Each structure stands twice: as C-alpha cells, then as structure tokens.
Amino acid sequence: MNSGLMGQVQNQPGAIASSQSHVDVGGETADPAQWAQILTALDATLTRARADIPDYDAVRALLTTIRQQRPDEPDGRVVAHSLLRQLSDRCGGAPGVVSLVSSALSIVATAAG
C-alpha cells in the first residue's frame, strides 16, 4: 500500500508523459462488471502503448482470448491466469500494463475464493 505525495514520477527510463491506471478490485467475490472494466482499461492501455510492444498483434490475440474467459469458473481462472502472465511478459514493460494485469490477476484470485 502506498501513501503520501510523489512528485514527477516516470515508470520507465526516458518516458515522457507516462500514465498509470488503477481499478479497485476490492470485495469478496469476482464481479463480472469489474472483469469487463479492467479488460477495457487494459485494451485502451495496450492501444496507447502500441509502439512500445514488440509483438503487438500477438498481444492483441492474447487479450481477445482473455476476454472470453470467465474468472468465476475454475477452467476460466486457470486459462486467464496463464494468458495474463504471457501478455505481461510480451509487453516488455509498456507503461501501465503491469499494474492492470496485476489488477486482473487479483480478480482471478478473488474469484477462486
């Protein structure tokens, strides 16, 4: 948990006008609306970071498959977890992607109960 003030912060060397997104995934159970919200935010972040993602088409294909998963079902959780990790690895530190993937993984973990 972070608190306090932060001045001018960049999330990667040489970054200009970086942005970061956060979606609160608190609660006891996975909410399908939160899952959709986080994936929509991830979609927008990937679009903005396109130039920073070496294999953009493969990452988009992963996101499409992730969107088809249901985190409230055991098989969907396993597939979503694996694909989210792959997506994160392929993005090479593109701004904002890691925090959104972490939020999505939290939803998957919360759904597991």
Describe, in plain words, how this protein is organized in 3D.
The chain is mainly alpha-helical and about 110 residues long. The protein has helices spanning about 30-50, 55-65, 75-90, 95-110. The chain contains four helices and no strands. The longest helix is centred in the middle third of the chain and has 17 residues, at about 30-50. It is elongated. The two termini are about 20 Å apart.
Secondary structure blueprint with pairings:
Elements: H1 32-48, H2 56-67, H3 74-90, H4 97-112
Helix pairs in contact: 1-2, 1-4, 2-3, 3-4
Main β-sheet, in a few words? Answer: none
C-alpha geometry: elongated
The end-to-end distance, rounded to whole angstroms, is 22 Å
Structural class: mainly alpha
What is the radius of gyration computed over CA atoms, rounded to a whole number of angstroms?
Answer: 14 Å
Order of helices and strands: HHHH
Number of helices: 4
* Extended strand count: 0
Look at the structure and give the mean pLDDT.
80
Percent range of helical residues: 40-55%
The proportion of strand residues reads under 5%
**Which ranges are low-confidence, i.e. pLDDT below 50, for 5 or more consecutive residues?**
25-29
List keywords for this structure.
single chain; 113 residues; mainly alpha; 4 helices; 55% helix; elongated
Short description:
With 113 residues, the protein is mainly alpha-helical.
